[in-house]
Every structure is written in C-alpha cells, then in structure tokens.
Automatic annotation (TrEMBL):
<keyword id="KW-0456">Lyase</keyword>
<dbReference type="Pfam" id="PF00291">
    <property type="entry name" value="PALP"/>
</dbReference>
<dbReference type="InterPro" id="IPR004450">
    <property type="entry name" value="Thr_synthase-like"/>
</dbReference>
<feature type="modified residue" description="N6-(pyridoxal phosphate)lysine">
    <location>
        <position position="113"/>
    </location>
</feature>
<protein>
    <recommendedName>
        <fullName>Threonine synthase</fullName>
        <ecNumber>4.2.3.1</ecNumber>
    </recommendedName>
</protein>
<comment type="pathway">
    <text>Amino-acid biosynthesis; L-threonine biosynthesis; L-threonine from L-aspartate: step 5/5.</text>
</comment>
<dbReference type="GO" id="GO:0004795">
    <property type="term" value="F:threonine synthase activity"/>
</dbReference>
<keyword id="KW-0791">Threonine biosynthesis</keyword>
<dbReference type="InterPro" id="IPR029144">
    <property type="entry name" value="Thr_synth_N"/>
</dbReference>
<feature type="domain" description="Tryptophan synthase beta chain-like PALP">
    <location>
        <begin position="94"/>
        <end position="332"/>
    </location>
</feature>
<dbReference type="Pfam" id="PF24857">
    <property type="entry name" value="THR4_C"/>
</dbReference>
<keyword id="KW-0028">Amino-acid biosynthesis</keyword>
<dbReference type="GO" id="GO:0030170">
    <property type="term" value="F:pyridoxal phosphate binding"/>
</dbReference>
<comment type="similarity">
    <text>Belongs to the threonine synthase family.</text>
</comment>
<dbReference type="InterPro" id="IPR036052">
    <property type="entry name" value="TrpB-like_PALP_sf"/>
</dbReference>
<dbReference type="InterPro" id="IPR037158">
    <property type="entry name" value="Thr_synth_N_sf"/>
</dbReference>
<feature type="domain" description="Threonine synthase N-terminal">
    <location>
        <begin position="2"/>
        <end position="80"/>
    </location>
</feature>
Length: 465
C-alpha cells in the first residue's frame, strides 16, 4: 500500500515510512492511495473470530509491503491477546431495546486510544530496530492520548517521548496516569495554555524541518495514519456481531480530533454497511456547526466535563476534506490557507451536500451530559463516563429509536472521570486493580510556557531543564 498527502505535495510513502513520519512534509496528513474493499463474504467471515484475527484481516492490506503476515499476526496477537482485560477485547453491552455501547476501555489506560497506541508502540519498536534508528515522539494530549502513548512506548528501546498536556485542564487521574510513569525515556510537560495550543506547538515543531530531522521526530497523535487504521477494526467486529453484512448498523462517536469517527468512515468505504455516522460533540461544537451551516469556523475552547473532546481544530477532518474535494490536494491547500487566514472556510455546495449525506451531528452540553448519565443509570444501572454519555445523547437526537441498531462508542472507563460521574449519578466509580494505588504514586513533570523555542530547547537537552 502507498500513502499520499492530503495536500498533494509531499512524497508518496510506504506504510513503514508513514508510521515513522506522522505529519507529511507539506503539512498534510497521509491517506492510503486507494481503499481496500471487503466483500460481503469477507465481512460475514469475520463473525465469531477472535479480535486479533479479525484485526489481521482488516489491517493486512494497509501494511502490505512493510510487514509480513507472520510479523503482523504476532504483533496483533500480543496487542489484543494480552494487554486487554476483557475476553472479547471490545465487548458490546446492550443498554436499551435498540441501543448498544461498544466498550473500548478495557486496555491498560482505560480509554479507546489503547487500541491504536498499543499497536503503534509495537510498530515503532519493529521499524526502528529494522532501520537502526532512534525516534523522538512529540505529542499533545487533551488527556487520554498521553497516557495511552506513554504506556505504549515506555518499554521501547529506541524511542523517547515528550508529551504536552494543557496545565490544569486534564483530570487528576488522566494527569497521574502520565506523570507517574518514571521511565527515563518519558518526559511529561504541562503547557501554560489550552489543548489547541499544545497541538499547535506539535504542528509547529513538525513543520520546522531542520529541527524535525535533528531529533528524528515521530508522532503518536491521530495525525499518524496507523492510529486511524487500528480503529477501523472494531467497527467491523461490532457491526458483524449485530448482524452485518446482512443488517446495517449506525454508530454514534464522541468526537474531538475526528480520528475515531474517521475510522468508521473508512470502514464504510471498505464496504461495511454503516447507515449513519453521528458526530457527537460537547460544547466544543465546531463540527456540529459545520454540519449545520457548511462553514468550518473556529470558536473558543470551552472546558467541559468531557475534557478529552475540548478541541476546536479537529486534525483528522482534513482527511475527510481531501475525499470530499475529490482527493485534490490543491483544493485542500486552498481551504487550509483560507482557514489559517480567516479562522474559517465554507465548503462548495456539492461537498457540503456529500458531508450531510454521510454524517449527522449533535452538540451535547454539560447539563445534558449529566442528565444522560443519570437517565442511563436509572434505566439500566449502567455507569457511563461523560464522553460516552455525549455519544448516547447524540444517538438519541440524531437516529430513529427503532430499526437500525444504534451503537455508541464508549470511549473511556467511568473511573477516569470519577468526579463528573459521582456528581451526576452519586456513584464513585472504582479504578481497576492495576491502577488502584494511582493517587499515591510519585509524579514527575515540568511546566513550560506556550513557546516553541522553550520546547525545542528542552527537547534538545533530552528533557533535562
Ligand atoms: C480522545 C478521546 C475522544 C475523542 O476521540 P477523537 O479520535 O479525537 O475524535 C473521545 N473520548 C475519549 C474518552 C477520548 O479519550
């Protein structure tokens, strides 16, 4: 498989190169040059397979030329066999006559990001060893990416990681899951700013090509194609469990950077019968407004009780724009230039129509999120985390109550957001045993201003200030 940049100017790369590169040199994101298709029979044959085997069949065409079948199989068996605490890896839990939750929080750091990052860590180890190279990972986190990425690379021999989080804007459990990992290749940085500031610093570092080469920068954010790729798998396994390919399924996806839902869009493009994809946002509703108006216009970042979605600029949306614009890199560049100058751009009418044809969207504020946590708890005894509750509510708003099954992606364990859960339903969710002593562990992190030069200096010094 070959990969092309959404902005059309960067070199075409292999899967191995794309995985180690992250952001394309022209500022774009990498996309597969063409989408592999799964036939009706291919999809039906996934039924009943162990998760790792289903993953092998879905992922195989994307890594062709970079990994042998045996290498890929071994990595998938290790990733999904050993590090997830649930026998079915990504179980479905029915919470209503036509409503299911796809529980994606049974990995080591209790959020769906483990699905992709546990695998990405293994890709990094494999490819850096093969090339005799070191990799410096720079990432930004609104909470869950950081811990999942650190957990994924803490034991990697040739990788060090610098993880930025917005100071005071992640939950205590989220922060401690990052800062209590005291491995020498892990550097945590609290930035005096928002998540978008952190993400902008990462982008700026990647766009500084001399610096990028000097420290051999790599990415763990969902600008890295391998992350999106890993997330395609659970759309297939969930839909097949509920009757696909004979019966279509709809998904509601709590959305921040548009990575997780974009994986659903790719699954549909590969042939999975997904009827609708619902973009579920909190008060940071740039995507919901885009669906309503056809204009992608930046707003202010609001702090919410679903902090992993407190994002205004959704990096992966550019991947969808690329497809909407007929895979025309020049058109994407023009949109992104307009956005950089005006903080907004408007889609051409045909593109806007195509967008609405594919997706629905709803904005769910904190009050509605809490009310949804309460209603679900009352009706079924199920304790949902606030991000999941945003998804459940958006499914109710956007999808018919009967007919096609409604599956909401449950993106985090409730104990990661214990305070919001307790406030809504009166129950204090318990952390799983492997994290039970988290609040007593030693923390290590540094604080930096929102300043690229300060960051570069710290990285050049290997994290010692
Ligand atoms: C990261 C995250 C999201 C948003 O996922 P995107 O891929 O950025 O859209 C939603 N919920 C939780 C719990 C997360 O950690």
């Amino acid at each position: 498989m070959k990969y092309v940049s959404t902005r059309g100017l960067a070199d075409t790369l292999s899967f191995e190169e794309v995985t180690l590169t992250g952001l394309a040199r022209d500022g774009g994101l990498y996309m597969p040059a063409s989408l592999p298709k799964m036939s009706f029979d291919d999809i039906r044959a996934l039924r009943g397979l162990p998760y790792a085997e289903a993953a092998f069949r879905v992922i195989r065409p994307f890594v062709e030329g970079s990994l042998t079948d045996a290498e890929l199989k071994a990595m998938l068996d290790e990733t999904y066999g050993d590090t997830f605490r649930h026998a079915s890896t990504a179980p479905l839990n029915q919470i209503g006559a036509n409503d299911w939750l796809l529980e994606l929080f049974h990995g080591p750091t209790l959020a769906f990001k483990d699905f992709a990052l546990q695998l990405l860590g293994r890709f990094f180890d494999h490819f850096t060893a093969r090339q005799g190279k070191r990799l410096t990972i720079l990432g930004a986190t609104s909470g869950d990416t950081g811990s999942a990425a650190i957990e994924a690379v803490r034991a990697c021999e040739n990788v060090s990681i610098f993880m930025l989080h917005p100071k005071g804007r992640v939950s205590e459990v989220q922060r401690r899951q990052m800062t209590t990992i005291l491995a020498p290749n892990v550097v945590n940085i609290a930035v005096e700013g928002t998540f978008d500031d952190c993400q902008a610093l990462v982008k700026a570092a990647f766009n500084d090509h001399a610096f990028r080469d000097e420290v051999s920068l790599g990415a763990v954010n969902s600008i890295n194609w391998a992350r999106v790729m890993a997330q395609i798998v659970y759309y297939f396994t969930a839909a097949v469990s509920l009757g696909a390919p004979e019966r279509p399924v709809s998904f509601s996806v709590p959305t921040g950077n548009f990575g997780d839902i974009f994986a659903g869009y790719i699954a549909r493009g590969m042939g999975l019968p997904i009827e609708r994809l619902v973009i579920a946002t909190n008060a940071n509703d740039i995507l919901a407004r885009t669906l309503k108006t056809g204009s992608y216009a930046m707003g202010d970042v609001h702090a919410t009780i679903s902090p992993s979605m407190d994002i205004q600029i959704s990096s992966n949306f550019e991947r969808l724009m690329f497809d909407l614009a007929g895979r025309d890199g020049a058109a994407v560049r023009a949109y992104m230039d307009t956005f950089a100058a005006n903080r907004s751009f408007s889609f051409a009418p045909a593109e806007y129509a195509a967008l609405k044809d594919l997706f629905s969207a709803a904005r769910v504020d904190d009050k509605e999120t809490s009310a949804t946590m309460q209603a679900v708890y009352k009706a079924s005894g199920y304790v949902a985390d606030p991000h999941t509750a945003v998804g459940i509510r958006a499914a109710e708003v956007c999808l018919p109550a009967t007919g096609t099954p409604r599956v909401t992606l449950s993106t985090a364990h409730p104990a990661k957001f214990g305070a919001a859960v307790k406030a809504a339903v009166g129950v204090d969710p318990v952390l799983p045993a492997h994290l039970a002593d988290l609040l007593g562990r030693e923390e290590r992190y540094q604080t930096l201003p929102n300043d690229l030069n300060a960051l570069k200096a710290l990285m050049r010094a290997g994290g010692r200030s």
